[in-house]
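[step 3/7] fold_predict: job queued, chain A
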Amino acid sequence: MKYGSFIGWGIVIYAVMFLVWNGLVMHGIMGTSARILLLITLAMVATIAGRSLRFSSVTDIIPYSLCWMIIVALLDAVYAVPSSGWQLYADWNVWVGYILVFAFPLIAPYTRSGNDHRV
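[step 4/7] structure written:
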């Protein structure tokens, strides 16, 4: 178990997404282009997090990925709920985001060269 990775990467994923989102809002970039940029950012950061574990099996990554998803949801409660309220969790887009935080790291073994992964 890599205990620092359990918490650390969850915080990093949240921080990067929060910074990108704030930057987009500050510059008035919204709509489809903002969603696509956020999706690409999440895919990159979460996949990098998954690769940093250096596991070759998806099943080894699942506990980390699940922990990162929970950390992101908890950090939303700390940072986003005070300004937007608890109705934040009623938005299906937020839940899709949590699912993607869980899912993207799972593709990490398939992003390495060669066939050194197991399912």
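[step 5/7] annotate
The chain has one domain: 3-111.
Residues 44 and 104 are 8 Å apart (CA to CA).
exit 0
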